[in-house]
Write a structure and sequence with these properties.
There is one protein chain. With about 625 residues, the chain is α/β, with parallel strands linked by helices. It has 3 domains: about 210 residues, 3-Layer(aba) Sandwich (Rossmann fold), CATH 3.40.50.970; about 160 residues, Rossmann fold (3-Layer(aba) Sandwich); about 160 residues, Thiamin diphosphate (ThDP)-binding fold, Pyr/PP domains (Rossmann fold). Helix content is about 35%, strand content about 20%. The chain is built from 24 helices and 23 strands. The strands form 5 sheets. A 6-stranded parallel sheet has the order 5-4-6-7-9-8, with helices on both faces. The protein has a 6-stranded parallel sheet with strand order 14-13-12-15-16-17, with helices on both faces. α17 links the parallel β18 and β19. α15 packs across α16.
Amino acid sequence: MSKIRRYTMAQALLKFLCNQYVERDGEENQFFQGVFGIFGHGMVAGLGQALEEYKNEMRYYQCRNEQGMVHISTAFAKMNNRKKAFVCTSSIGPGATNMITGAATATINRLPVLLLPGDIFARRNVAPVLQQLESPQTQDISVNDCFKPVSRYWDRIYRPDQLITSLPEAMRVLTSPAETGAVTIAIPQDTQTEAFDYPEEFFTKRVHHIARPKAEDVMLDQAVAWILQSNKPMIVAGGGVIYSEATKELSEFCETFGIPSAETQAGKGSLRWDHPYNLGAMGVTGTSAANRIARDADLVIAIGARFSDFTTASKTAWANPDVRFININVCHFDAVKHSALALTADAKSALLDLSARLKAAGKRPDASYQTEVGNLIADWRKEEERLFSLGSTPISQGEVIGAVTNFVGPDDVMVCAAGGLPGDLHKLWRTQSPRSYHLEYGYSCMGYEIAGGLGVKMADPSREVYVMVGDGSYLMLANEIVTSVQEGYKLNIVFLDNHGFNCIRGLAKACGSRGFGNQFRFRDTHSGDLAGNCLPIDFAANAASLGAHVIKVSTKQELEQALAQAKAIDKTTFIAVEVNPDEYVPGYDSWWDVAVAEVSEMESVRNARAAYEKMREKERYFL
């Protein structure tokens, strides 16, 4: 007969989580590294009590906003190649719903995070409780049902024994490269405190093996045939290359067979910035080299990429009518996109298998194609240097990026997420190692930056972490500066002030508007528009009030000096610089489908619509 242990549901939950491990390639580590939370009535007496009782087994971290703690956890998981994760818990009501944006961010980016929102009473007799959403149609609903569309797995624990079947399913999803994302388990506040006689084996150590699935031989043989037939092949490296730890194999593949590689946002860092076959960023935010090679490519080998519209330039990037796709992806859903030859496999294993077959077939680099690739990359290097030294007043965003990327060390990490910065960083940041570029661009979530930077720093405290953030995103969610100070994790925050949502201001202009509603200005008493003077927001004072050391700069030289000064400081440092809102890094041979008004009294909008309709003709279905 099995031995039993009597625990509350919350205690059993923590005990189970403490004993979950993952293993890949013989390397084993504990999966959950701690719990973030803000206590409230929905879980303080249940999970909160368990966290206090078992604080030596599972560390608890405070945060300042529930969305922020999910971002921290998402960034932490990404920096650990999805082999480590955090738990996030909240009270019922707004504490829970604050996590929904974070859940969507994690799921869209295919990153594991376990969410444990408190829930209303399972026994119902005291309903409605504080913060409960009532429904006249059903009693079986709470705000936590809102997590369903943004979670890869969702459950609600009405009885303490249901943990026994729910938690293994949660771990199946969290540790699967193909299925992972946010997992939400709603825990009613009364059920958390109820005791049950759990079987002892439920709490034994469990090691979840992360497999490297291999492609079928018939698919590999077909892929080799297509590559041998191709005259202008290219690779699109996505985040799967990095998560698979296949960067060395990709580099050798490119060099051995003379095939150039472009990068998605998540895949940036798959090759060093100065690798001879690195075309740089692909798509809407891409380099001239990548997009010109893509235009004529007859074969695209996508590795660990999910083909967002930014990567495909809204299905206009590949103009060759005979172009074909080979998709290597551990997730079959992504592998079949673009009617591709689907190699549903781990990136590293597939690259090794393809390489062996291509060598046996005698595949060699094409000299003329190598020359073309080399010339385009050389031209892009000249454009980079031009953008790094414009001499703009105030300093341009491109010059700020140039100063920072030329200062940082090979293992330092750049973190960003939203606005115009991700596009410029995608083009201009010079990655020196696989994990030195951390962009959340699946959801492009404003407010991710500082919280995400903290998650990166917690994942690897030995690295200097640089968070680049604009004033719009900063105002969304800056308060995890406090958490970084509290926990002693230093961030280098490079803050760019362009007085508004300048990225969307530029997009509005491109769509025929005048940038309406995007600058941070007083309302003009005569026109009624937000067209008065710029708002006098003292961002530096705000950051200082949250505990950061602050340095103000206005020139490129002062920025370079501030970066050196910040590196010597042992606490979170905030470097504030005003940038020129009218000096943009241009786009290169690419387009993004943003629908323009079909009718308008504004001539500029009508002209923009005409240009839009011409570009839409270039979109393809890849059937």
